[in-house]
Amino acid sequence: MTTHAAPTLETPPAPAAPIVQDVRTIPRKLDAGARTNIVGLTREQLRDALIAAGTPERQARMRVGQIWQWVYHWGLRDFAQMTNLAKDYRAFLADRFEIALPEVVTRQVSDDGTRKYLLRIAGGHEVETVYIPEEGRGTLCVSSQVGCTLTCTFCHTGTQKLVRNLTAGEIVGQLMVVRDDLGEWPEPGAPKDETRLVSNLVLMGMGEPLYNFDNVRDAMKVVMDNEGLSLSRRRITLSTSGVVPEIARTAEEIGCQLAVSFHATTNEVRDRLVPINKRWNIDELLGALREYPRLSNSERITFEYVMLDGVNDTDEDARRLIRLIRGIPAKINLIPFNEWPGAPYKRSSWERIEAFADIIYKAGYASPIRTPRGEDIMAACGQLKSATERGRKSAAQVAAEAGI
Ligand code: SAH
Ligand code: SF4
């Protein structure tokens, strides 16, 4: 995500524990009287929920506005402190609703300041979220699914069998948990602080966001709302492996920036690297991408290209890439392959990556090389895989903690 010239090329240290393919889905605890979680509801959904619980219709809009500000602007978790609501209304809310976030299981901090959080969500599942501080900004890399149904051969997440979609609340919750950890909620009465620790959000963690479209859209509506978390759509980037039918909807219903995991310049190689290419091939994908900037008013599409030694990294690949994307406002983000234990590929050499970048640059495209971040804690792109599959707790322990 940066344009620094020299990525670190060290191999990450081998993880302490071997990967165990121990796949288990713990059913959600069904609790008929469960309170509704406010986090992740859009304004309309919150309004409907308040009315369904007994709030008079004519008051509902105003109550939404008040609660919204407490939860998303001030970061409040306790209805009792919502001082502009009548006491009995606060009690009514506490009785029927909750403000619940994923639970932080572990937090690791890399030598370079990157923070990786392992979060536990309903059902005992776990997902990872990564915070990447940079000069003048901070990017949060958010997961959209537990694992991923797709099986890109260079991606660690793709080897994880356990999969479920995250709810909108679990997606928004990732941002809120990290803001808690960074202490990034405004202090009442303190002068307004314009520096933002989390200034950008990328949907580049675990999962394929366009296979969880509705929840991702609703979560982004909450995140973009400018009376709350207030991240503009220009500071949000959704990365897809190429779910072609959902690309136009992304433009129309979310309007954020789009990144595409392109990674190859022939269908033969892309079929191998990004198997969804067998469903929607390069031509179909490019067709959808040509429409995107016009529909979403976005400036450029980011083409992500992972540099795999001897697989997709020749000069000829670079030239083919330029020919393919001609006419699309684009930038090409070269990602040095991040190795993981057992990965079937090697990272291209630094000279190769630079030569590739040079051809692209000379053709008039920005070609930043993404600096691998947090490699020492396996937090770099494509290294995420729930620790449920590494050195996990016993099933009984997880089940007990999930309240089953
Ligand atoms: N599922 C979405 C978003 C998550 S992956 C997608 O595939 O686009 C975010 C980016 O990291 C994608 O471009 C993905 O292809 C890339 N990536 C995955 N594994 C990687 C690895 N081991 N090294 C470098 N990049 C990787
Ligand atoms: Fe899923 Fe993206 Fe990994 Fe492919 S690269 S397996 S789509 S998370």
TrEMBL record:
Its cofactor is [4Fe-4S] cluster. Its EC number is 2.1.1.192. It is found in: Cytoplasm. Binds 1 [4Fe-4S] cluster. The cluster is coordinated with 3 cysteines and an exchangeable S-adenosyl-L-methionine. GO terms for cellular component: cytoplasm. SUPFAM superfamilies: Radical SAM enzymes. Its main location: cytoplasm. GO terms for molecular function: 4 iron, 4 sulfur cluster binding; metal ion binding; rRNA (adenine(2503)-C2-)-methyltransferase activity; rRNA binding; tRNA (adenine(37)-C2)-methyltransferase activity; tRNA binding. Reaction proceeds by a ping-pong mechanism involving intermediate methylation of a conserved cysteine residue. Belongs to the radical SAM superfamily. RlmN family. This is Dual-specificity RNA methyltransferase RlmN. It comes from Paracoccus chinensis. The lineage of its organism: Bacteria, Pseudomonadati, Pseudomonadota, Alphaproteobacteria, Rhodobacterales.
